[in-house]
Amino acid sequence: MPRSKLSLLLTSVLLCFLPPATEAQTQASCTFSFFNLGVSIPGLGPGFIAPAGVNDFGTIVGAAIPSDDQVAPNRVAFIRWLNGGFSFPLGTGSPSGLVHRNSQGVSIGDRGGVPMVLKGTAANDIDFAGLGSQVVSVNGTTGINRWGSIVGSYNTSSAVIGLKRWSNGGFSKLKFPGSLSTFPTSINDSGTVVGSYFVGPPGVQLPQNGFIYHNGQWATLNYPNALFTNLVGISNAGVIVGNATDTVGGFLYENGVFKAISTPNGSSTTVMDISPTQGLILGTANSGGFVAKCH
C-alpha cells in the first residue's frame, strides 16, 4: 500500500473520523461465487467445512468437521482448490486446522494444537521461544503475508498480547495502548496489521474494538453504533473487512466509508478474510460459503 494512502487512512481514523450512520448502512456492490459447505472427509465420512482464509488464486483453507462429532478427531485441515476439489494435507488421523494461506502457497494453522507452517506437504512447528519467559500459552497464529511475516497472540498471567513473527524468527509484541487483550487477525504485504482489542480482562464481555497498526502507529476503527467490531482482513490496497456481530454482520471499509456485505437476497454475512491483491472476500451466509468481489 503506498505510504501516502496508508498515512491518509491512519490519519483519518486517528482523528476519530466516522461516516454518518446513514452512510454506514450503504450496501457494498458484490459479485458472489457461492459454494457448498458439505464435504466428504477421507476415513471420517460426511462433514462440513469451516472456511478461514483465501488467497489471490481463490484457494480456501480451514478446518473440516465430521457430521458425527463423536468421531475423533473432531476437525482436520483442508485446502479447497479453485476447481472445487479438496485435499487434506495433514491427513485425517489427528486434529488439525489451517487459518490462512498466502499467495505463495504457504499456509499457517495447527496440528494437535501446536501452531505450524505448511509449505507443500512439509509442516514445521513454529518456535515461540523468542517471546520470552512470561508466555503462559500461545493462542495461535491468524495471518501470514507474502514475506512470511506471521501474526497471532499469546497469553501472559494477566493479559492477551498480540505478536508479529518475522520470517527470520524474530518477534515484535503488539499491544493496543491501554488494552488488556489484543488479537491481531491479518497482516498485508506492507506490514499493516488489523484485528481487535478489549480494554477489560480476558473473558469479560466488554465492547470489542477494531484496530489498525502500522510502523508503531495505532488506530481504532469501529463500525458505527456496533458494540462488537472485529476486523479480520486487509488487502494491499488498504481495503479492510470485518464483522459488526451485533448489527450488520460482514462489512468492508474503504476510503473512509463502511459498506455492509449482504447476499443478493438481502441476508447478512460473516466474513473471514480478504486476499491481498485481488481483493477476494471469503465469507458465509445462509449455511453456505462464498467468495466475492466487492466495492
Measured as a percent range, the helix fraction is: under 10%
Major β-sheet strand ordering: 2-3-4-5-6
The total of helices stands at 2
Determine the structural class based on helices, strands and strand pairing: mainly beta
Poorly predicted runs: 11-24
* Annotation, overall tally of beta strands: 25
Helix-strand string: HHEEEEEEEEEEEEEEEEEEEEEEEEE
Amino-to-carboxy terminus distance: 17 Å
Average predicted confidence as pLDDT? 90
Largest sheet: 5 strands, antiparallel
| General form | globular
Strand content: over 45%
In short:
This protein has 295 residues and is mainly β. It contains two helices and 25 strands.
Tell me what the structure shows:
This protein has 295 residues and is mainly beta. It has helices at 3-14, 21-24; strands at residues 30-35, 38-41, 45-54, 60-66, 76-80, 86-87, 96-101, 106-111, 114-119, 122-125, 137-144, 150-155, 160-165, 171-174, 181-187, 193-198, 209-214, 217-220, 229-234, 240-244, 249-254, 257-260, 270-274, 281-285, 288-294. It has a 5-stranded antiparallel beta sheet, with no helix packed on it. Strands 1-25-24-23 form a 4-stranded antiparallel beta sheet, with no helix packed on it. It has a 4-stranded antiparallel beta sheet with strand order 7-8-9-10, with no helix packed on it. A hairpin with a 5-residue loop joins strand 5 and strand 6 (86-87).
